[in-house]
């Protein structure tokens, strides 16, 4: 299987609202494989790289300070076409307009406090993975259940 990996980060609002378990559960129930997870306090240095593409936008300073008000929980999920699947489960940025059934659509109403970050492309996922996870923090393991999650063709 040509598996992709995607970085999901539960933002400070998700942690404060006690939604970490619910968020993990949504990705688990979908059938994605958890290959890395940790809690961390973001710093200006990491955020400068993490949000480099938002630098200069009016909301950037507030976004950076918000992401430091509490720790975050970073996860690495793996699966076939994982980046797109995670984005679909996440919903659009403006949470109050996100589709019902998505994490943001069901659990949030704000544009800034939208609970989680999800990698928006394969390239960004690779960049974010390197920024947050060391090699020892990424786990390769077999999940026997995958024969009931993907077809034989999809597993090849
Ligand atoms: P995300 O898409 O994960 O990454 C960029 C973040 O910036 C976004 O989630 C929101 O948390 C925040 N953001 C994007 N647009 C705005 C906005 N117009 N006002 C405030 N925050 C925003």
UniProtKB/TrEMBL annotation:
Organism field: Candidatus Chisholmbacteria bacterium RIFCSPHIGHO2_01_FULL_49_18
Domain (Nucleoside diphosphate kinase-like): residue spans on this chain: 3-140
Binding, ATP: 11, 59, 87, 93, 104, 114
UniProt cross-references to Pfam families, sorted A to Z: NDK
EC number in record: 2.7.4.6
Cofactor: Mg(2+)
Main location: cytoplasm
Gene Ontology molecular function terms on file: ATP binding; metal ion binding; nucleoside diphosphate kinase activity
Subunit field text: Homotetramer.
Location relative to the cell: Cytoplasm
Presence of keyword Cytoplasm: yes
Gene: ndk
Record InterPro entries: NDK-like_dom (IPR034907), NDK-like_dom_sf (IPR036850), Nucleoside_diP_kinase (IPR001564), Nucleoside_diP_kinase_AS (IPR023005)
Gene3D superfamilies noted in UniProt: Nucleoside diphosphate kinase-like domain
Active-site residues, Swiss-Prot/TrEMBL: 117 (pros-phosphohistidine intermediate)
Protein keywords: ATP-binding, Cytoplasm, Kinase, Magnesium, Metal-binding, Nucleotide metabolism, Nucleotide-binding, Phosphoprotein, Transferase
Cellular component, GO annotation: cytoplasm
Family: Belongs to the NDK family.
Name of the protein this chain belongs to: Nucleoside diphosphate kinase
Catalytic activity: a ribonucleoside 5'-diphosphate + ATP = a ribonucleoside 5'-triphosphate + ADP; a 2'-deoxyribonucleoside 5'-diphosphate + ATP = a 2'-deoxyribonucleoside 5'-triphosphate + ADP; dZDP + ATP = dZTP + ADP
GO biological process: CTP biosynthetic process; GTP biosynthetic process; UTP biosynthetic process
KW ATP-binding (keyword) present: yes
Reported function: (Microbial infection) Catalyzes the phosphorylation of dZDP to dZTP, when the bacterium is infected by a phage that produces the substrate for the synthesis of dZTP (2- amino-2'-deoxyadenosine 5'-triphosphate), which is then used by the phage as a DNA polymerase substrate.
């Amino acid at each position: 299987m040509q598996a992709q990996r995607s970085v999901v980060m539960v933002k400070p609002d998700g942690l404060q609202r006690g939604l970490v378990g619910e968020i993990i559960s949504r990705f688990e129930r979908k059938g994605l494989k958890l290959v890395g997870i940790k809690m961390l306090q973001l710093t200006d240095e990491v955020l400068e790289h993490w949000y480099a593409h938002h630098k200069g936008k009016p909301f950037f300073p507030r976004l950076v300070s918000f992401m430091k008000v509490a720790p975050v929980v970073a996860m690495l999920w793996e699966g076939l076409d994982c980046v797109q699947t995670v984005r679909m489960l996440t919903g659009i940025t403006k949470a109050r307009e996100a589709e019902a059934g998505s994490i943001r659509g069901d659990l949030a109403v704000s544009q800034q406090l939208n609970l989680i970050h999800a990698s928006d492309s394969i390239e960004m996922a690779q960049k974010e993975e390197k920024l947050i996870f060391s090699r020892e923090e990424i786990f390769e393991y077999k999940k026997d259940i995958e024969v009931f999650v993907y077809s034989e063709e999809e597993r090849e």
